[in-house]
Amino acid sequence: MRNQSMSNQDIFPLRAEKRAEGYGTFPYVIVRIQGAVYMQFPIHFYTQSNPQKPGLRVRVDSLMDEKQNFDDLFNVVRQFHQQINPIEAKAFKMCLVLSPDVCHFFEDDTFKFSDEIPEGGSLIDANYKMLALNSPHYIID
Predict the structure, then answer these.
(1) Smallest Cα–Cα separation from 73: which of 86, 89, 60?
(2) Which is nearest to 39 in space by CA: 116, 132, 110?
(3) How far is CA 128 from CA 2, 22, 60, 125, in A?
(4) Which member of 17, 95, 112, 133 has the greatest number of CB atoms within 10 A?
């Protein structure tokens, strides 16, 4: 959630090489690992060749068909939630972030809209490497 008390001296923003891999670019998925530890998964849309970048991949027929692409995106995120959350374990909290003020938390097998996106804390990638600290989870230029 938005943390108004972050001071500039505590901020460690996303590095350029991670930006090139899609981190910090909308849309993305945030998984809350514990407390203020978040894992980010970039989302890559593609039509023919699967991008060799980290994160989730959404195959679409056309990059211009926004409605169908959103349907495909939500289906991929729903499947991802099932993959990372075994039935017998406590589910990780997950959020599909679309913009600085639009996200959908996935709870109880449904997406719930929110205008407050996760930010701050420790942001890591799927290999548990630090991406950012006490800063927004997206690129601000």
Answers:
(1) 60
(2) 132
(3) 23, 16, 29, 5
(4) 95
User: What range defines the domain where residue 25 resides?
Assistant: 8-133
CB-neighbour burial class of residue 57 (10 A; exposed 0-12, middle 13-18, buried 19+): middle
**What type of residue sits at position 82?**
Q
The C-alpha atoms of residue 26 and residue 87 are separated, in whole angstroms, by: 29
Number of domains the chain contains:
1
Within a domain: 72: yes
With respect to residue 3, please indicate whether it lies within any of the assigned structural domains.
Answer: no
The contacts of residue 102 (CB under 8 Å, 6+ apart) are 113, 115, 117
Q: For residue 2, what pLDDT is reported?
A: 46
How far does CA 62 lie from the centroid of its chain?
A: 22
Q: pLDDT-based confidence at 8, cuts 50/70/90? A: very low
> Above pLDDT 70, what percent of the chain?
89
The reported pTM is: 0.85
Regarding beta strands 102-107 and 37-46, do their DSSP bridges make them parallel or antiparallel, or are they unpaired? unpaired
80 in Cβ contact with 56 (< 8 Å): yes
End-to-end C-alpha distance for the chain, whole angstroms: 20
